[in-house]
């Protein structure tokens, strides 16, 4: 069945029209428009109609359908005028608004006298033709109705018939409209399918509060009756959502409101619908019952918790009073805004992972996974399979369906590689390729898997000396050392010991009224704490268990400290740097610190005067 139909004034032009469309190779139906029963046009199933003059106007006034008016090309009009000139000099051209105007300008060229008149309906058309006859017009030029009237009045006439050019032009326009309609219909069906299958309710209204869209989920909230409610006032169906009209009036959205609809609590978002980002043309409410939301959140939370791929700590969890840690946090927050690779340096126990998690939770990746692995905790072959994953049968003992690697699991999030300096050289080359290409290949596979991860690594070793001694790849080091964070040891920031002790006491001595005297705190400050914050935390925990006294004095602390193990510490600030700092590292540090020389020097782990010499050397002053 054709989607495009020609609606004719009467039967006279149908044969000609069908033949022309057949010559053009176009599938177009044709029928006479019944003024008494316009609905017959809709029974054809057509989407677009072609017509001319008064018939086109009548269809538009009666039916909400697209109507393409068949034009009268200029050359068709010239042919009719030339034919009329053979019948008489005084020619009356009578038509509707589709008729070309200004035809009187052709009088000198054709040596005729053209009088052109327009009408809005058949009755007016009849009067115009009668007036032309009284004025002595010899020939009438017009459509079927005009020429039929002329015949009855014994006036010579020339009918403007359809031409191939006119119908081809009209068909092309109708075909474009048809394609648009079919595309919109497909999109509407897709939208309807999406809205009717989702568990979330959707209701849209126009400026008057009339429902223009509603899905099955919304309908089921009020009853099991799923009869169409489009065109119904919202207040009659969902009085609980009357606030949606306020959104139309104010143009301001309302989010996360709890509304009770028919004994069901829902979390509702209401947003205005705007035309050209300015004029409010309606509003839409989206909602879901709270039970479904909490159930879904519970599943997500359990899945993440079971895997452990989440970051717990934030910068607010870092307890300090020292200026050095304040600067570390300031730099780390700047790093969080970037997506560049971060290398965290510091002795064991200074809180490197605490900073790594805080950077992740401050970044735009905070809703993604945080995957942490200690490179020193696993043998080389296991570390490789954990990082990169493997396919079924990749090695003896491999899982049946293979396994995702940690890089895959960290997709759209952050991977934290602790003790990166302990990664075997054989794996460093493969890890470097992942950093460069952001792609990973599982063991036993030949497929490349794109990944989007941020890499944060950490070490308690002097990694520059490891590079110098060929125990760590220099190309990998420069890849990792884009943003560097040096966390000072506890012995260099003794101001933090007091606040740390208070924090640990709240955890371990919360059920006892224990007081640590100032002389005891002084002893704790004088101790070097080779295990840093971790050792101090363990010491306070042990103190809360072993000590029977409610007053902790200097002697009790001395006795317990005497049993603490002593180890040689790594001093990052005083150790001679054997690997020169590159121009790129200096430039990056200055960029991150916005030109603050003190902050840049701390990032590079050098004195401010050393930074000045490097800036002068690399022409960065």
UniProtKB/TrEMBL annotation:
Location of the Sigma-54 factor interaction domain: 318-545
Keyword Transcription regulation in annotation: yes
GO biological process, one term: regulation of DNA-templated transcription
Span of domain PAS: 187-235
Keyword Signal in record: no
Domain of life: Bacteria
Keywords for this protein: ATP-binding, DNA-binding, Nucleotide-binding, Transcription, Transcription regulation
GO MF terms held by the record: ATP binding; phosphorelay response regulator activity; sequence-specific DNA binding
Pfam family name, one: Sigma54_activat
Gene3D superfamilies: 1.10.8.60, Homeodomain-like (1.10.10.60), P-loop containing nucleotide triphosphate hydrolases (3.40.50.300), PAS domain (3.30.450.20), PrpR receptor domain-like (3.40.50.10660)
Protein name according to UniProt: Sigma 54-interacting transcriptional regulator
């Amino acid at each position: 069945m054709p989607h495009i139909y020609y609606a004719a004034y009467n039967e006279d032009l149908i044969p000609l029209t069908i033949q022309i469309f057949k010559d053009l190779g176009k599938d177009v139906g044709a029928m006479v428009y019944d003024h008494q029963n316009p609905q017959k046009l809709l029974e054809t199933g057509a989407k677009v109609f072609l017509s001319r003059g008064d018939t086109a106007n009548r269809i538009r006034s009666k039916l909400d359908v697209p109507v393409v008016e068949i034009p009268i090309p200029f050359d068709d009009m010239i042919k009719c005028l030339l034919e009329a000139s053979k019948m008489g000099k005084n020619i009356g051209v009578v038509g509707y608004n589709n008729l070309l105007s200004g035809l009187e300008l052709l009088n000198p060229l054709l040596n005729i006298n053209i009088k052109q008149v327009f009408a809005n309906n058949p009755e007016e058309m009849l009067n115009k033709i009668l007036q032309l006859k009284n004025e002595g017009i010899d020939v009438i030029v017009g459509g079927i109705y005009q020429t039929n009237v002329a015949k009855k009045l014994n006036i010579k006439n020339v009918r403007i018939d359809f031409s191939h050019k006119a119908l081809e032009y009209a068909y092309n326009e109708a075909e474009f409209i048809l394609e648009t309609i079919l595309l919109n219909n497909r999109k509407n069906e897709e939208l309807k399918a999406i809205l009717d299958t989702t568990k979330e309710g959707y209701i849209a209204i126009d400026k008057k509060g009339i429902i223009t869209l509603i899905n099955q989920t919304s309908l089921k909230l009020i009853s099991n009756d799923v009869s169409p409610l489009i065109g119904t006032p919202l207040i009659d169906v969902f009085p609980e959502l009357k606030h949606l009209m306020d959104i139309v009036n104010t143009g301001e959205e309302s989010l996360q409101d709890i509304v009770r609809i028919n004994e069901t609590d829902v979390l509702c978002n209401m947003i205005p619908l705007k035309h050209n980002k300015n004029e409010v043309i309606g509003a839409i409410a989206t909602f879901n019952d709270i039970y479904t939301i909490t159930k879904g959140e519970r599943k997500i939370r359990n899945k993440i918790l079971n895997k452990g791929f989440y970051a717990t700590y934030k910068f607010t969890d870092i307890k300090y009073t020292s200026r050095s840690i304040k600067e570390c946090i300031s730099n780390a927050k700047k790093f969080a805004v970037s997506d560049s690779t971060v290398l965290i340096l510091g002795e064991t126990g200074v809180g490197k992972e605490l900073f790594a998690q805080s950077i992740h939770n401050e970044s735009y990746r905070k809703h993604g996974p945080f995957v942490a692995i200690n490179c020193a905790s696993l043998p080389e072959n296991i570390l490789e399979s954990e990082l990169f994953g493997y396919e079924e049968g990749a090695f003896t003992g491999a899982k049946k369906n293979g396994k995702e690697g940690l890089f895959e699991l960290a997709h759209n999030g952050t991977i934290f590689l602790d003790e990166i300096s302990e990664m075997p050289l054989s794996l460093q080359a493969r890890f470097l390729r992942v950093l460069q290409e952001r792609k990973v290949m599982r063991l036993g596979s030949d497929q490349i898997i794109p990944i989007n991860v941020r890499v944060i690594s950490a070490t308690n070793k002097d990694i520059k000396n490891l590079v110098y001694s060929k125990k760590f790849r220099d190309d990998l080091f420069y890849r990792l050392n884009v943003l560097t964070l040096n966390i000072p040891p506890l012995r260099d920031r003794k101001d933090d010991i007091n606040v740390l002790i208070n924090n640990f006491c709240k955890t371990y001595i919360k059920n006892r009224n224990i007081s640590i005297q100032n002389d005891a705190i002084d002893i704790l400050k004088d101790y070097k704490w080779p295990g840093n914050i971790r050792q101090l935390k363990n010491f306070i925990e042990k103190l809360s268990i072993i000590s029977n006294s409610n007053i902790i004095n200097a002697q009790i602390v001395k006795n317990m400290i005497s049993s603490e193990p002593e180890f040689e510490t790594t001093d990052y600030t005083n150790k001679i740097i054997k690997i020169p700092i590159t121009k790129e590292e200096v430039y990056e540090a200055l960029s991150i610190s916005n030109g603050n020389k003190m902050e840049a020097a701390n990032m590079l782990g050098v004195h401010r005067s050393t930074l000045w010499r490097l800036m002068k050397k690399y022409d960065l002053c």
